[in-house]
Amino acid sequence: MTDHVQISDTTLRDGEQAAGVAFSLDDKVEIAKQLNRLGVDEVEAGFPGSSEAEVAAIQAVSRVVTGRRTAVLVRALRSDIDKGAEALKFAEQPVATLFAPVSELHIRVKFGKTLDEVLAMIEDAVQYACKRFQQVIFSGEDVTRADPETLERCYLTALSAGASMVSVPDTVGYAQPEEFGRLVARVRALVGPDTGVRIHCHNDLGVGVANSLAAVRHGANIVSCTFNGIGERAGNAALEEIVAALAIREDYYQRKTRLKLDEIYATSQLVSRLSGVAIGDTKPIVGANAFAHSAGIHQHGVLQDRSTYEIASPSLIGAPERGLVIGKHTGHHGLRAKLTQLHVDLPSQGAFDAVLAEVKLRAHNGTDIDDATLLSIVKGHVN
Ligand code: KIV
Ligand code: ZN
């Protein structure tokens, strides 16, 4: 197995399950082309069981996904598998992720079946899917609340029926990082070193990214995630955060992805625009403030050496420089640097002090001072 961590992007499938999000066919194709540029290892294009329109959209997506896997999500039903095969008939590397319930709650309450019935269903569905797809990945559903022995029986049944990888989703975002790491280590020990282990984390308790990274430390080699963390309920683990952590803390994880990191910002912006889901200012890696320095002490440090308060440069992910924010926390060093950037040379220390005082007054309510406003403040103090 390769040593890099593979990324399976599910923005088009689980990402679209975010309340209020609906991508058009053209949106999906545009996002898929960008995911190609970014270099993800797998594009999960959709859930063909949902509609004919979804099948058509997956077909369109699969035509532009080249040099990597295109995946669909299917239930362990022959009818779903047939729709999946139809949806991926043009794909270069078609993959089915076939899922079945594995927790007692899902098996009994949601499904009204016994474990033996579920095992029989998994065996039949995996065998049927293997004849129609290049690869079949078996995914449990609600894995983190499942009895470990039941889970192992489900995975072993799927593998002996022909599945080539297993997927470990935290469907309801219930697991905690150390616990999820231990679970993944157990699955890795069960399937051996040569079988792919994909993980897929939801963010209900705000630890989707932490769980994904813990899984990588414990033997997962494929991470399923979405751009900007969009997805069902509180969303999925955010791709950009996982990939950036693996790159910036390579010393710790010892494995990184093969993505073109400088396409991350553009992809995040595209997904935000087409999904209509805004990116919070303080969102790690891609938020407007992720690389902005506001406090006087921080600005002073960054002006001497950026690494004092920056763990990476925005250019790493292709983001524009945000640099120094002029606002209520700005100090002498920050203002002086900003004025130099704007080619402003104030005639005296008195004028400088007056400009700084007015900046602080105007920004008192939290409004940052943009360049045009700063220049008008300067003007008021030099004439
Ligand atoms: O979260 C999940 O379990 C999923 C599928 C694999 C059903 O998105
Ligand atoms: Zn999911």
UniProtKB/TrEMBL annotation:
<protein>
    <recommendedName>
        <fullName>2-isopropylmalate synthase</fullName>
        <ecNumber>2.3.3.13</ecNumber>
    </recommendedName>
</protein>
<dbReference type="Pfam" id="PF22617">
    <property type="entry name" value="HCS_D2"/>
</dbReference>
<dbReference type="InterPro" id="IPR054691">
    <property type="entry name" value="LeuA/HCS_post-cat"/>
</dbReference>
<keyword id="KW-0808">Transferase</keyword>
<feature type="domain" description="Pyruvate carboxyltransferase">
    <location>
        <begin position="5"/>
        <end position="265"/>
    </location>
</feature>
<keyword id="KW-0464">Manganese</keyword>
<dbReference type="InterPro" id="IPR002034">
    <property type="entry name" value="AIPM/Hcit_synth_CS"/>
</dbReference>
<keyword id="KW-0012">Acyltransferase</keyword>
<dbReference type="InterPro" id="IPR013785">
    <property type="entry name" value="Aldolase_TIM"/>
</dbReference>
<dbReference type="InterPro" id="IPR000891">
    <property type="entry name" value="PYR_CT"/>
</dbReference>
<dbReference type="GO" id="GO:0009098">
    <property type="term" value="P:L-leucine biosynthetic process"/>
</dbReference>
<dbReference type="InterPro" id="IPR050073">
    <property type="entry name" value="2-IPM_HCS-like"/>
</dbReference>
<comment type="pathway">
    <text>Amino-acid biosynthesis; L-leucine biosynthesis; L-leucine from 3-methyl-2-oxobutanoate: step 1/4.</text>
</comment>
<keyword id="KW-0028">Amino-acid biosynthesis</keyword>
<keyword id="KW-0100">Branched-chain amino acid biosynthesis</keyword>
<dbReference type="Pfam" id="PF00682">
    <property type="entry name" value="HMGL-like"/>
</dbReference>
<comment type="similarity">
    <text>Belongs to the alpha-IPM synthase/homocitrate synthase family. LeuA type 1 subfamily.</text>
</comment>
<keyword id="KW-0432">Leucine biosynthesis</keyword>
<dbReference type="GO" id="GO:0003852">
    <property type="term" value="F:2-isopropylmalate synthase activity"/>
</dbReference>
